[in-house]
Amino acid sequence: MKIIKSAFPLVIALFLTYAMNQSWGTIPPIGKIFSPFHGFWMNAESPESGEPTEETLQIAGLHQPVQVVYDEMGVPHVFAQDDHDLYLAQGYLTAKDRLWQMEFQTHFAGGRISEIVGEKGMASDQFQRRMGSVYGAEKSFEGMQQDPAAKMALEAYSAGVNAYIGSLSDRQLPLEYKLLNYRPEPWTPIKSALFLKNMSFVLASGTDDLKMTNILRKYGREVAEDLFPNYPFQESPIIPVGSPVDFKPVPIPAAPADFTGLGSSMTTPEKDPNIGSNNWAVSGNKTVSGLPILANDPHLTLSLPSIWYQMQLVAPGVNVYGSTMPGTPNVIIGFNKNVAWGVTNVGSDVLDWYQVKFKDASKQEYWHDGKWKKTTMRIEKFQIKGKKDMVDTIFFTHHGPVVYLSHEKPFRSNIPVGHALRWIAHEKSQELTTFYQLNRAKNYEDYKKALTFYSAPAQNFVFASNEGDIALWVNGKFPLKSKLQGKYLLDGTDAAADWQGFIPQAHNPHVKNPVRGFVSSANQFSTDPSYPYYLGWQYAPSERGRRINERLAVMEKITMDSLRGLQNDNFNIRARELLPLLFAQVKSPNAAQSKALAALKSWNLVNSPESVGATIFENWVLTLQSCLWDDEFSEDEKVPMSRPAMDRTIQLIKSEPAARWWDDTKTPVKESMSDIVMKSLQANLDSLVKHHGPQGPEWAWYKIKQTGVRHLIPGMDALSRLNIPIGGGGTIVNATTTRTGPSWRLVVELSKEGKPRAYGVYPGGQSGNPGSSHYDDLIDTWAKGELKPLLYLESPDQKSNRLRKKITLSK
Amino acid sequence: MNKLIYGLILVVIGALVGIYLPWYAMGVAFGLIAFALNMPLKSSFLIGFMAGYLLWIFSALWLDMQHPSTLPGRMAQVFPLKGNVFALFMLTGVLGGLFSGIWTWAGARLRQNK
User: Fold this and answer.
1) Does any domain span residue A124?
2) Is residue A616 part of a domain?
3) Residue A19 falls within a domain, yes or no?
4) Number of A:B CB contacts under 8 A?
5) How far from chain centre, in Å, is Cα B8?
6) Which of A347, A658, A746, B48 sits CB 3.0–4.6 Å from A539 for a disulfide?
7) A15 — contact with chain B (CB < 8 Å)?
8) CA distance A110 to A121
9) pTM of the full predicted structure?
10) Per-residue pLDDT tens digits for A131-160
């Protein structure tokens, strides 16, 4: 009895220890994380100051020592003596700054978030795997192994990441591991493949096929084709109209029979219309220096740690600077002595759905081409934190995975149930070879050859060389389709509806040294309708592309700074076109409406941060679209439909004032165009007043838009930067929205002597550690529209007052 | 022995254990010391608490002085302290104190098995 009594405090102590060593829901292990010898206090890093420091680190597996110098932004400049050591160092140094992010992003891509956060991650995980992300990564990994150089880079990179993981004790773990209470696992080369495949998920998984089929079923083909045209009313395509075609097209497959299908109340992730990018290159005859200048700003979700990590990679045969993606070897967007390149996304249709007819509930066979064919099965295992493991079976037809069976509830409302997915991301591919070769490219021919290895996600690869060439290839693997094939859901039993091979890579749209003296892309249509192949019916709105092209056409004596200015251009060409049309429809405005209209009339059409006119206009576009179309296209949430694009609305205002669509079918009276314009103006003001008070400085555009760069853990505001004062907008060249924007801005001027000059910035910082001064130190520069000079070194011993730290990696 | 000397022994051992062993080893070590030295039961919790409190709060202050950063401010938002860094230091000390105090008390109690 006595023993029990005297042991009682010990029981309390043990219980307390257990409780303080555990996560409770989202609460981290309170003892472990507050211990100054183990927890977050250990993660503080002081800013470097004063004399550059030097240190040596031992890394197993290196052939020769590697010299690394860090500049004041925290960019490592890596000097290795062979490719193997270069990529090993890239893996090691990237992990040193970004390990948690690399692992978290690949866990997400591979459908393994529930291993970290438990059951609440399960629906997302299952969706990722059903979409075939792991299957696609395995296929693409197969492709990567076929090129010895890419294989070596991938394996050395992986060894480098593992060398860093192996050097970490618990107390040195990145902060997020401590917050979420887990440890990193070994890195494997297939994780790099998962990361690259996830870029297809981000950029090439948009699908409106179900919504379009629902429209087809309700309104018929004529209306569907009229309101959802296959080429916009206004456009300035990437490949200039009239560019010569230097290939003989292969025959186009015959169109499959018309198919209306079952549609469904369920549907794939909707493409975020704000994810897009700008790039351009101007030829030497338009620049002050007489040599080409290239600019690129890929627009992605703005996150911390940033998706990009700057590096300079130097070894015999390569000296490249640019932004890398943590998780994969090579520089993705950058420049070397001779060339520069950049990318923007291509909105081609590379994802289609086939309605599946199974023989019976066992789903062992499906009907195709007049025969019952066997399905294959893939078993996916899920380890869920705090729960038992789960097993999921995915059925595959020859098209691809049946993402959701007819009775299942999809993760997103626009994914059709009972349909097999045919998607370019499932093809074997060799993207790494493209980047490996681009990093070493010397001229246009090298660039052209590098692109032949690239599949997905398709990109507009802009290019400039110090030989004076500028070029742009709309590049990727594109299915060879009949016109409009895959605009709607397809018949999985009809062999004629299958993808019939691919467009030969040499036939991809391209242009070199056009007469106009520049090439550009901003996610708009790749070509005008004269291009012999069908790539897709729907691309990003044309405004950014049209604005860039109208500016570049008139700009002369171009400098890097004038292109920086164009990257930050906030001019609203949609407002320039639309506002006069809307003003003409205004009748008997009330006091509040008059005040708003006055603000619009005096607005300079620039989406600057403080602009109130921009706020009223942008919100008016939203309410106009809603007042005009929601009665017909958003009636029933179980039957999701697309809404006609703004381009089509402008066309309707201009030339179809009596169209049936103007009437609001929800009211007994018949509305005119003018009625809808006034109604939308009032709805616009009502919503602004409700959320932001009466018209005044509180309506400043940046206060309404609320651009934020958010930490990858949802809701982790303490590690995010919110409410950044910046202008722009989704259809503005400075495409900064609430959560997306220019994720990396680069401007490069080439030089005959092999001494390129470059400027760049991204909204984040080199370090992934929230306790480092380099965590978010570039955000203010980015928000101001400024760029940082990029340091391009010839040797590790080169003098520069910008160097802060030197590390020797030795075996 | 004087309370102050007990406390001093705990702080020194606690720091060494903290640097080389997992975080909870400090508690176990305090329990063992209290047992071995037959610490007075009545004041054992207070001695342990003060040792843990001072060790954690001063270690945190020292780290913050060595590596000044925005991290404490951010962590004072991750843990709902409205960004108050002073409160974050206090919380660190109190958690270290509670944990140490209970283990010290447990060690002393076990020795005085009556």
Assistant:
1) no
2) yes
3) yes
4) 118
5) 12
6) A347
7) no
8) 12
9) 0.94
10) 999 999 999 999 989 999 999 999 999 999
